[in-house]
Structures are given as structure tokens and as C-alpha cells.
Amino acid sequence: MTATLAALEHWSGGLWPYLVVILFGFLPSEIWRWASVFLVRGLSEDAEILVWVRAVATALLAGVVAKLLLVPSGALAVVPVFWRWGALGAGILAFFAFRKSMLAGVIIGEIVLVSAALLATG
Question: Can you tell me the mean pLDDT for 48-62?
């Protein structure tokens, strides 16, 4: 096993962990995204299957956000609950303030969250 890792290290110049992430994390997901682009051609935006897909995606995102807010792990556990909820609120306000811009909501929420983490850690 050590010889294999040494060979990978030599062959990739130390980039083998990134190659593994691309090969096993990014590509399998990306294949399905491209397949969906070709499969939904000609479907109306209001088609029942697309409404269902959006509902499932929204539910999954809501679950991830709830887990991050209520049961954080790692570095996020250091940030007090008040600031985690405050970052969510700031992100939602920015989303609506900037004409429903998802990018604005994410950036403002991240700024509040990172600032709180920096303040919490000293």
C-alpha cells in the first residue's frame, strides 16, 4: 500500500488526492447533470417531473441547512448558534434586497458567518 501511494505521489507530483476527488466525486455527478440536460429538452418548465425535481432539490437543501444550523460539526461548531441563525437571516434579506439574487444571499451570509467565526475564535 505504501509503495502504491509513493508511486501515486511521484506520478502526480502530489496532486493525487485531487485526482481522486475529480474521478470519484465530480465526474459521476457531472455525467448525470449532462444526461439531464439532454433528457429534458422540449419539456415545459411547468412539467410535473420538473416540479417534482425542484421540490426534492429544495427539500435536500433545506435538510442540509437545518443540519448545519442545529447540529454543526467541525469549525462551524465554534460559531455560536445566534450567529449561525443571524447569517441565515442576513443571507435571506440579501436575497430579497438584491432582486432574488442567490449569489448575493450566499455572499452576504458567508461574510456574516466567517466574521462571526473569526470573532468567536478570538
Answer: 91
